[in-house]
């Protein structure tokens, strides 16, 4: 009876897989999946194991042999061929896979399970723990089915010595089978794998035997086996892969799968810590293959990206040599119309963004006068020039016949994130106004700011490069007062003399929209508000500054209204963003808040006072935050007093919080002075003392209970779902120091003391301030003792 159950695999049609329609192949695939599941059980393994040889010879291997379907797909749809036969990611072999669908994938999954098998699975309920341990120890000494059956069977098929289709088709099946033995081979000694590769795979790369179908599969197998390849084999494997990386097409067939699988295998070798002996020839070869052919170019760009990411230290010295070549290749492929760019152009920009980051990471340590640093900056200028040429080609050339405003409105929105990375790279180290002109920085910033003004593809990682570029643009404008930064260019007659959108106006639209997006964007937008209002010089163009402040305050308060029901971390960036606007235009901002909500000004003031108290969980963490809040409270208190609101709750809350802010600012100042003194007296024992401190702090930590842990996780999950906190990976956005620009010169301590001295009769005697705050304040500022004397007694 048992024999009959498996006679199905002796039926001749299973050998002719190419003649199966989709439904029939799906049935065969499910049959393999059923056996895979059966093997996961002890009784099932005993039932099937005696038929392993029959399964392999009559069912599994025939599905692996190359057939007419494979050849047709190779020629007609190479992408589909590779998806089926050379997948980029192999998943774990298991009897419980439900996503295989093809007979070949299911048979490979089954072969992988069989190869690592050493006996029936041992279930916990079937034997005692002592017996289970004995079974496991016994199996360690046993040979697996892969060693006893699979490899000997595959060794029967020799490497083809001529163009015999039968031999080639069968050896294709052998290579497919090797790809399923990864788990089995990982358990073998390194010498075993080395022998297998040296005798059964590498000979295929000899010119006399070079068969594209087999080479593509061999490339793929080497890539999949790369994690367990012995180190001494890597050089030979790399040389073989490099040899076929640029294999040309022939009159008979395309070699695209060969080139693709070779690139993938080289990438996996590098990912597994193999560093090529010579980087420049490899990089030049890869860049030199980038052309109008979108399929090939995408493959080489992907490989180049991997080489840059993994081998950054080795690649960096050659970046100035390859960037001009890469830029020229990408420029040729940018369409002359404003249509969305081809995929290969987008991938090219993404690769250049990686290249730019790689060069930044290679900056030598030391002073700017260091020779190596000077040389690095000089070579960086070469890269920046190439990037500028590319952006000009992308943003200017398609619209040369159009007027400025019309051209800007038709620019392609493709690759804004990567373009922002390149633009930020260009302007970051500019130290000469002549370079600003040579690289057309103002023109590029005008084009870029118009792109981000209409940005609607908000994605956390993509937007980060835009925010970074904003920071670099503001910094550069402070150095050189860029043309069109604050006021746009007037159009040529006969157009009306209305200025085009300026750079900062485009940036302002982007920042305003950011307040309505994900939490990290709110933090970044708030940081930009401080920078744009405090750092940027507007000279006589105060209307532009006022317009920005009003837009920012409206957007920030609108978002605050969505979260005001419960204090959360987003309160801080939103309220501080409004604070910066209020410091410059108090009357206008107050009107906006009142327009958005009844008593909106009071709502904002109360919330601002609250975030300075101990009741607010997300306390002020930097001196600049406290200073900004303190300056705002001083201005608010003065306004309330001039309006005759001496007995308002807002006045009490603001003054109490101002006292707390002053105390905290003084404490930070003292701590900073003490740290400076400690730094001066540091010695070689610092590391030991730090270790001791860490041990002490570990001892002081109170272990969290399971209930507390679950409660904390639930709160975080709810907050993330509601969009009120940033995820853990983006916490650095919350720790940025606020750039106060010219307001850094304001002495908060003097402002507070002056306020108290002028209005102490109302502020001190007319308010019920907690005694401990008064005591702490006088301790920090003894000169105010007289002002608080009556209230203390």
From TrEMBL:
Task: Give the GO cellular component terms, alphabetically.
Answer: cytosol; nuclear envelope
Signal peptide region: none
Matching entries from InterPro entries are given as: ARM-like (IPR011989), ARM-type_fold (IPR016024)
* Positions of the UniProt region annotated as Disordered: 665-708
Q: Where is the composition biased (Acidic residues)?
A: 670-708
Q: What is this protein called?
A: Importin beta-like SAD2 homolog
**Organism encoding this protein:** Olea europaea subsp. europaea
Q: Which GO terms describe its biological process?
A: protein export from nucleus; protein import into nucleus
Molecular function GO terms recorded = nuclear export signal receptor activity
